[in-house]
Amino acid sequence: MLFNSGIFALFFAAFLPLYLLCRRHVTARNLLLILASYVFYGWWDPRFLILVAVSTAVDYVAALGAAGKPVRTVDLLKSGAFLLAVTLASLAFAAADIWLLVPVGAGMLVLAAVIRLILRTDGPARNKYWLLLSLTTNLGILAFFKYCNFFVGSIVAVLTDLGIDAHAQRFSIILPVGLSFYTFQAISRTIDSYQRRFEPQYSIVNYAAFHAFFPQLVAGPIERAGHLMPQFESVRPFDGRLLASGALLFLWGLYQKIVIADNVARIADSLFTAPGGQSGGATLAGVLAFAVQIYCDFCGYSNMARGLARILGFDLMINFNLPYFARTPAEFWQRWHISLSRWLRDYLYISLGGNRGGRMKMYRNLMITMLLGGLWHGASWTFVAWGGFHGAIQVAYRALGIDTRIEGSRFASASGFTIQVASWFVTMTLVCIGWILFRAHTFDDAVAILRNLFATTGYTTAQFSGLWGYTAPLMLIEGFQRVSGRPEILMVGPFLLRYTLTVILVLTLFAFSVHGSHEFIYFDF
Amino acid sequence: MLFRRITLGILLLLYTLVLAEAYFRVFDPQALMPRYITSTPWGVRGNIPNARYWNHTPEVDVEYRINNQGLRADRSIPLHKPPGTCRVAVFGDSFFFGIELQLPETFEGQLERRLREAGFRAEVLNFSVGGFGTAEMLQNFTGFGQQFEPDVVIFSWDDSDVQDNVRSGLFRLNDGQLQPADSKYLPGVKTSDWLMRFRLYRAIADHSEFYSFIREKAGLLIKRQIWKSGKSSPNSAPVEQTNIGGEAAEEESNAEKKRAALELSSALLLRAHDVVSAQGADFYVVEIPYKLSRVRVRPSVNALSSDVQSHIKVVGTSAALNKAARPDLKLYFETGQGHLTPVGVGILVDETMKKLHSSPQLAACAAPPLQ
User: Fold this and answer.
1) A500–B217: do the CB atoms touch at under 8 Å?
2) Hey, are the CB atoms on A512 and B28 less than 8 Å from each other?
3) What is the DSSP code (8-state) at residue B32?
């Protein structure tokens, strides 16, 4: 179910009154949230609810065990019963796939055997085994559904290059929506439990509601248990102010998605579907259009998720903080997809050693983190190259001390202003070059686009007018947000001004939106 | 307190309406395209007799005059044709009604002039109504148009007819046989008739860009929903839908719907041919292609069944339009509702004339060319 679809509007309109009826009773509210979240996700394909349930059931007990808490038989039974109930319910809507009961049953038996083995161990080792169970399960699901064909294809390609005749069957595997998001969120909770940064509780209802919370289930933000989980254990507020600000945030996200992203997508698509032979102007317009598209697509989704959660009284973290105002690549990553950047920093970069152990190790850790971050975005070498490119430019900035020099320059002075503007321009140029790698289907396409960028043809006003028309209001608003430091400008000023802006926003949504519900780019990640 | 709140609410509503009207006039000007449509005794929509209204777009300002019989004409048409004169009756949707065109620029206006120049004592009558599909054109002919003793009957054909024919529900295919399904199709006419009684509504419909935007969007949305829902099945047996398989099943279901809808349209055209021929008139179908860009159009007749292509005189126009298309030439309007310009219509008329020259019915009223 897409936020920008009519069916979601109906779904939410039916859900909200029920939610308000039971919001003061935590367990009833969370049961309703589980049901709603599973309907929301299962609308796409009910069979994949089983994966959500597997991740929930395993991490429910794994986090308890990793935190050193006793995992009782009743907890194991609750976990198993939850998985079984979701499996049967989802297969009730997919009767043709009843055979899935066999692998699910077999998986449960294997899990039971592994858990039995873990329970035989003692002390800190047992905590580690619980953590390993969570990592193996979540990363195993991710590896199979997202990367199986990529790994097999890459191995075959390498063997073929070495002169070895290798063939492999390409599996017909559907990538479940939001898999990378909910598995990472589950892993982070178990790691935090293991590292004693978070204390898991025994309620599977509360945990399942947190794990599948529909506003952020399919495309984040990847929340930390320490921030979001306690909200599922308490009564959440609901009032007119939250409703208004949540609705406005949702509308702003919707505007970013269906007015800006979906419209400029046409300019980007015309470049990336046929990159050869494009003029310099068309190439630049296409690259800039994609930079705007991916930002508004993903930031729009995050804002809609935050807006919906706020209406329900939940607070989700800010996922984008004006990333296109960044002056260095490192600052860009502090502002872009913040929940993933922090996840990679806390659980990968720091685990690899972080800044400790000298400059070379730090550079190595940075490169590994960015390469894997690239791979997280998609099973393709172009994504890995994109991650590697961002890793390399961050290493170069650090090695040359550019980060420190830019941070040291003062905006007020003329030279400082020049440095800040120039560094912003260079960073944005690098980010856009990165987007070419990200969006291009092949490396050949990326090279062709980079080559065409230097062509001097096609720099006409008409080439950029469409892009400019959709981007100018965004730039104005984000400029105001940057200068004023107030991220939610629709909530600022006297009533009539706010009302007028809101009416204009709604009218623009109707007047300039692209027909039909277009999927979000990050659904594929 | 309550009075103050109500007053504030009304003021806010008025402010919102004014703001919305100003928004569309500044940021997204709309074509003002009022609909003067009512019901007819033969069960389909018709133009409101004696109506006079205007259509404003950034490209054109057009006046529409409907005669006392509901035809777009500046005079009343006698049922019986004058001796020695042939009649060409044109049935179509907004393209042939002549939306965005002055009366002499319409297909009918240009065709009549060209026929007279070619030496035919002919008059061309415009029976078109915006939004019509083939099924409604057929009903309009049998219920109304045939009384005017036409010698030649022309039906328009464009892509939108495929869905229109299904949506109207006037005919269905049962085991490949075309059967009447309903005697009436009057979508929204009751509401429209009621609203048109009010001068304020007519003023809003004639002049408000905000209203025009809402009406067009709502109309499109309703049409799409009807098409999507199972209600608009072209067959008596609805297409089976599975709840699994997501997009693939939906695509398959849509392809099946489209195939069945094309079958229905082909059957309707063949039926129209038979009915018109039984009256002793010649029957033609004129293609209105779909505009892809300023320099390219897509044919619309290719999808019709081979029976239609072999039995009916189809005036294909896409090749001529593609040949004439140039980046600096508008064949379709670009800021209103995208109908054909006078130049585009002229090309359709050229192609139609090539076929009409060989019409045995028209030969009877051929006269020496005017000097």
Assistant:
1) no
2) yes
3) B
Q: What is the mean pLDDT of chain A?
A: 89
Q: Which residue has the tokens 């024919």?
A: B165
- Each residue's pLDDT tens digit, B336-366: 788 999 999 999 999 999 999 888 888 888 8
CA-nearest residue of chain B to A96? B244
> What would the two tokens of residue A241 be?
């102010």
Hey, which residues of A are catalytic here?
377
Residue A203 has pLDDT above 90, yes or no: yes
CB distance A44–B27 less than 8 Å? no
Amino acid identity of residue A162, one-letter, is: L
pLDDT reported for residue A197: 92
Torsion angle in degrees (nearest 10) through CA of B91, B96, B98, B100: 140
B12, B28, B246 ranked by CB distance to A511: nearest? B28
CATH of the domain at B140: 3.40.50.1110
Tell whether B20 lies on the interface with A, counting CB pairs under 8 A: yes
The pLDDT score that the predictor gives to residue A96 is 83
Across A66-86, average pLDDT = 92
Which tokens hold the place of A4?
Answer: 């920008």
Q: Is the ipTM of this complex over 0.85?
A: no
Listed range (A129-133, A272-276, B191-195) with the worst mean pLDDT = A272-276
In total, how many domains does chain B have? 1
Owning domain of residue B52? 28-235+254-363
CB A336 within 8 A of CB A299: no
The answer to whether residue B5 sits within a structural domain is: no
Whether B118 maps to a domain, the answer reads yes
Domain presence at residue B246: no
Q: How far apart are the C-alpha atoms of A436 and B302, rounded to whole Å?
A: 40
CB atoms within 10 A of CB A36: 22
